[in-house]
């Protein structure tokens, strides 16, 4: 129930719709109950009861006589209008009943009308909140999660809430009001019979609640398995080339079938438990009505404390109370089902973001002097990847980091961009710890080109404008020229408006990388970070990309993480890393002369 209350917080912006919904439901419940009570004079007319006596205007003598006063007053008004003509009286009462049912349904529609905006608004805001938090969370969070499970939470779990827990919002006002107003009418007609009803309704509720006890656990299993299915599908689509190349289709097919079969079995158990709720509650409702018929019949035939027409109207009201009672029991049942989805969604929303900005974080719009790595140490899990690492990079210099895989080169790029925070020490830009800066202003100072050219299923123009939305078409073309990419873009059917497909798969590796460089060029940041930007390219593509990189790095501070050492020979400073520590440092020629680790790395690549 706590998760349900958390979801209700998202209804606050829509309180005007909630007020309209509640007011409409008050009238819906009132006219719904009155439409059954209006049957009493009609039945009296049909059975020609007290036709003459009712011409005398009744006198109100107190609440204990309210039922008789209401009946006699209504009969008096009917007979006064009908002038003792039963057909006219019947026509009037039928018209009254039709009017009451019409008003009931009008207000029922209005209640649903307001609820549509409230319910859909909550779903929209909830989905947006989950997506926003997903984007805000650090990369470390996603290294421990399956992409498919995250996708399942944003899509399937929100949809589960939409069709299980959120419909309960409609019940919060409508059904309790229906029950309260109907019970008041029932008490007025017969207090004895109503007290008798209260013995059996709680028993029914207890039985129904016991049926739904294990529903949350069953629903949770279904939703987790949906995440597994989506993860398998996402992995399959991403790695289809490898799956086919290694003849692994059958292996992945079996993996998907196993998950699909588990989902099938879990869903069967969940839905069969759900299906048990409706027939059980209906049978219990009929049981209560049958007992009422027996006991009410005793009051009419033996006790004579209740007349026939009032008893029939009472039975209509009793049935009227069973409908909302059944809806509430179904709603509680749905809350249990939706609780698992709400818990999974809330888990993402409540996840603490260790990289969020400090209060009053500094906004810095310029880079003036230097970047300093001051005694930093960092580990992803157990072992330190960087150990007591210190380095100063003056403004305007091109500094390259080299070393074997696992030496900590790419970690430096992850730390300066604040994808991760250091465990010890600090990284300073112009003497300010980057943890004290607003993350957005820090990243505005940085341009990133990664080993994998990450592009989106959109036009070339929109991909390049990612960091500079206000750029004109001329700016985009100029950036493409600097990145050595205009030579192939100008020959495309729609030039910069050409869609490049999912992950840019319509382009070659070199073309994609040059677009990534153009994107960084257009952003025009003072600090450029190149994380093995040419390592995945063939020789011809590497040459074109290297020219583009040289163009881009002019007059900028550059941090180059290099795999191919031929690309960084002109660097102002080359830093050689081994197991997270600096083992050599200097210019290319100086390091070759030292005949140390760097010379060995160069010789190995020359031999390759």
Automatic annotation (TrEMBL):
Q: Does the keyword Transmembrane apply?
A: yes
Q: Read off the Pfam families from this record.
A: ABC_membrane, ABC_tran
Against InterPro entries, the record matches this protein to: AAA+_ATPase (IPR003593), ABC1_TM_dom (IPR011527), ABC1_TM_sf (IPR036640), ABC_transporter-like_ATP-bd (IPR003439), ABC_transporter-like_CS (IPR017871), P-loop_NTPase (IPR027417), Type_1_exporter (IPR039421)
**Membrane topology label:** Multi-pass membrane protein
Q: Where is the ABC transporter domain?
A: 371-604
Q: Which residues cross the membrane?
A: 22-47, 89-111, 177-208
Q: Show where the ABC transmembrane type-1 domain sits.
A: 73-337
Identify the keywords attached in UniProt to this record, alphabetized: ATP-binding, Membrane, Nucleotide-binding, Transmembrane, Transmembrane helix
Under the heading Gene3D superfamilies, the entry gives: ABC transporter type 1, transmembrane domain, P-loop containing nucleotide triphosphate hydrolases
What highest taxon heads this organism's lineage? Bacteria
Protein name per UniProt: ATP-binding cassette, subfamily B, MsbA
State the species of origin: Flaviramulus basaltis
């Amino acid at each position: 129930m706590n998760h349900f209350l958390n979801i209700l917080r998202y209804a606050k912006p829509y309180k005007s719709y909630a007020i309209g919904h509640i007011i409409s439901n008050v009238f819906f419940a009132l006219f719904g109950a009155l439409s059954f009570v209006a049957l009493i004079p009609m039945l009296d007319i049909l059975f020609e009861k007290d036709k003459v006596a009712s011409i005398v205007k009744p006198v109100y003598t107190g609440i204990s006589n309210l039922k008789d006063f209401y009946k006699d007053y209504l009969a008096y008004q009917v007979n006064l209008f009908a002038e003792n003509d039963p057909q006219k009286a019947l026509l009037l009462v039928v018209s009254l009943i039709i009017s009451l049912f019409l008003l009931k349904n009008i207000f029922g529609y209005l209640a649903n009308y307001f609820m549509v905006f409230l319910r859909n608004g909550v779903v929209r805001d909830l989905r947006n909140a989950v997506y926003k938090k997903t984007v805000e969370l650090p990369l470390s969070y996603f290294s421990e999660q399956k992409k498919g499970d995250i996708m399942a939470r944003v899509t399937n779990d929100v949809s589960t809430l939409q069709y299980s827990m959120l419909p309960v919002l409609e019940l919060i006002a409508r059904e309790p009001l229906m029950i309260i107003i109907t019970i008041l009418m029932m008490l007025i007609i017969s207090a004895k019979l109503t007290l008798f009803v209260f013995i059996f309704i709680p028993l029914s509720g207890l039985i129904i609640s016991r049926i739904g006890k294990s529903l949350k656990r069953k629903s949770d299993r279904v939703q987790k398995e949906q995440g597994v299915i989506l993860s398998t599908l996402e992995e399959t689509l991403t790695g289809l080339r490898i799956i086919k190349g290694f003849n692994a289709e059958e292996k992945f097919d079996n993996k998907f079938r196993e998950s699909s079969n588990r989902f099938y079995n879990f869903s069967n158990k969940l839905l069969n438990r759900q299906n048990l709720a409706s027939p059980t509650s209906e049978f219990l409702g009929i049981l209560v009505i049958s007992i009422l018929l027996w006991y009410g019949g005793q009051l009419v035939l033996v006790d004579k404390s209740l007349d026939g027409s009032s008893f029939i109207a009472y039975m209509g009201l009793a049935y009227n109370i069973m409908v909302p009672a059944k809806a509430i029991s179904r709603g509680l049942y749905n809350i249990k089902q939706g609780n698992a989805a709400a818990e999974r969604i809330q888990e993402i929303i409540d996840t603490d973001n260790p990289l969020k900005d400090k209060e009053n974080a500094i906004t810095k719009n310029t880079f003036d002097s230097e970047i300093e790595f001051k005694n930093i140490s960092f580990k992803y899990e157990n072992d330190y990847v960087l150990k007591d690492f210190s380095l100063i990079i003056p403004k305007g210099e091109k500094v390259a980091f080299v070393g074997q895989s696992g030496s900590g080169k790419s970690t430096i790029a992850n730390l300066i961009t604040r994808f991760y925070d250091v465990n010890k020490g600090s990284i300073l830009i112009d003497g300010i710890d980057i943890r004290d800066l607003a993350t957005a202003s820090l990243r505005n100072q940085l341009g990133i080109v990664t080993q994998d050219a990450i592009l989106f299923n959109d036009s070339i123009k929109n991909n390049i404008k990612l960091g500079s939305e206000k750029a004109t078409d001329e700016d985009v073309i100029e950036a493409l020229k600097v990145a050595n990419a205009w030579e192939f873009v100008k020959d495309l059917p729609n030039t910069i408006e050409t869609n490049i497909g999912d992950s840019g798969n319509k382009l070659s590796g070199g073309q994609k990388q040059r677009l990534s460089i153009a994107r960084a060029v257009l952003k025009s940041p003072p600090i450029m970070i190149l994380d093995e930007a040419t390592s995945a390219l063939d020789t011809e593509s590497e040459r074109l990309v290297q020219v583009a990189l040289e163009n881009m790095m002019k007059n900028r501070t550059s941090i180059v993480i290099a795999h191919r050492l031929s690309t960084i020979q002109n660097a102002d400073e080359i830093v050689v890393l081994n197991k997270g520590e600096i083992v050599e440092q200097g210019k290319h020629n100086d390091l070759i002369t030292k005949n140390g680790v760097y010379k060995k790395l160069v010789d190995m690549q020359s031999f390759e």
